[in-house]
Amino acid sequence: MKKLSELLKEEERVRFLIDDENKKDFLNFATQYGCKWVGGEEININEDKCGYIMDIDRTLSIGRIGTTCAFMGKNQPIKINFADYLAENSEVVTSESVNIGHPDKTCDMIADAFLDEALRQDPMSQMAVECAIKDNKLFVFGEATTKAKIDYDGIARNILKDIGYKCQFEIIKQISEQSVDIHNAVVTEEVGANDQGMVFGYATDETPEFMPLSIVIAHKLMREYETFRQQNKGYFADAKSQVTVQYLDGRPIKILTVLVSVSHAEEVSYKRLASTIREKVIDKVLSNYPQYVQDVDVIINPSGRFTIWGSFGDSGCVGRKIVVDSYGGVGRVGGGCFSSKNATKVDRSGAYYARYVAKNIVAHGLCHKCEVQVAYGIGLSQPIAININTFGTEQKPLGQIQKYVKNNFDFSPKNIIKELDLLKPIYSQTASYGHFGRNEFSWEKIKD
Questions:
Q1: Distance in angstroms (rounded) separating the CA atoms of residues 9 and 112
Q2: Which of 422, 434, 216 is nearest to 322 (CA)?
């Protein structure tokens, strides 16, 4: 069965038959297409089921559709049963987020705190100091070429204490200066990329954050949990969320499942935990999305007890949550992580700029969703290749979109650092709850 966007290019009118069970799904679907419900005429779909008819008329403005409900005498429309259409054209997308006590995310936070301290003292620092954690041992390793005097132990211990660890950590360090070969290729007047590789930026207009709905909600669940656990004894910083959303024609229509796992003290019973997390975290977040909430399947701590948490329940390492950090599995990622790296590392700054460009393309109404891919070569001051994918959702010709990008954006590392103001100590803020969809960051601004 063809998608509605394809049918409207061929047909003057499309008539959907909608029953009571899927009326809300249809309304969410129609709203995503810019439709408004302007009334409804009940009809008998069969002898024992009552429903509705909606006619959708094609207009000259592609992708913006006017609606009328009821029977129209001329131009007989193509008729579609919405239940069949839903079954054939829907998909589900699942995204996850993790809280600061997850050992991978703890390492990201510590590494970005090292970077911030280096930039605070020396904005020209070249940093890539990472860490790994297991039990009460923290391994700190990497490269640092900087004039800054960094108290690695003190920074790490403060973060571990804030997260909630009571034990004394043994910290093992192995840090050297950046390779002279790489340094000489990068630190030039034109600023060369610190490595080869590709980066991706993604944006969609399905949420105000220009992010996929599933990852937006997953991050909000973790933010809400962090606020909750800071104010309530018996709950620890290690937690995860997972959100599954049903999409129709690439647009969200329903939240299917929300899963939250949180660490807790021995004395917190499962019954108490489940009811508290449902009320204080999950329901609080979902109340902001009533149009997508029908019969959401809520799962809390499916493993039961979660009393052994953080580095004592798992190991952690910088950069192992790159999908959490980016688009929740919807937009692609280049494979390189963000945390620990200063702005000459295009794994980070290039990905930020690609998001910046993709968001601006969508925010200016040029398409409904967009992915920007950029390829860099080590030591080179200009990208090797740029590709723009609008997934068939463009509202302007692709040539016009490409011209808009060429006339307004410069993907060179030197310009990225300057335009996005990336020499400031801002990176600890990015380490948790996603690097994108948060207006406090310069790469999220809408360019005039």
A1: 50
A2: 434
Tell me what percent of the residues of the chain surpass a pLDDT of 70. 87
pTM, full prediction: 0.89
Using the 3D structure, point to which of 312, 345, 377 is the last residue of a domain.
312
* Non-local CB neighbours of 260 within 8 Å, separated by 6+ positions: 221, 225, 239, 240, 241, 242, 277, 281, 282, 299, 300, 301
The reported pLDDT for the residue numbered 73 is: 41
| Residue 334: alpha-carbon gap to chain centroid | 14
Q: What CATH number corresponds to the domain at position 243?
A: 3.30.300.10
DSSP letter string, 166-202: -SPPEEEEEEEPPPHHHHHHHSSSS--BSS-EEEEEE
- What single DSSP character describes residue 331? S
Q: Phi then psi for 360, rounded to 5 degrees?
A: -65, -35
| Residue 121 belongs to a domain | no
Q: What does the alpha-carbon distance between residue 171 and residue 161 come to, in Å, rounded to a whole number?
A: 14
- The predicted model gives 225-238 an average pLDDT of 97
Helices 82-89 & 23-32, crossing angle to 10 degrees? Answer: 60
| Contact predicate 324/98, CB 8 Å | yes
Closest by CA position to 93, among listed 212, 3, 201, 261: 212
Strand 78-81 versus strand 13-19 pairing type: parallel
Q: What is the pLDDT of residue 57?
A: 52
Mean pLDDT of 192-216: 91
161-179 mean pLDDT:
93
| CA 444 – CA 448 distance, rounded (Å) | 13
Half-sphere exposure of 251 (CA within 13 A, CB side): 21
Q: In angstroms, rounded to a whole number, what is the distance separating the alpha carbons of residues 418 and 432?
A: 24
pLDDT tens, residue by residue, 117-136: 999 999 999 999 999 999 99
Does residue 379 come out as left (phi exceeding 0), alpha (psi in the -120 to 50 range) or beta?
A: left
pLDDT at 408: 96
Range of the domain at 268: 93-101+213-312
Q: Residue length, the chain?
A: 448
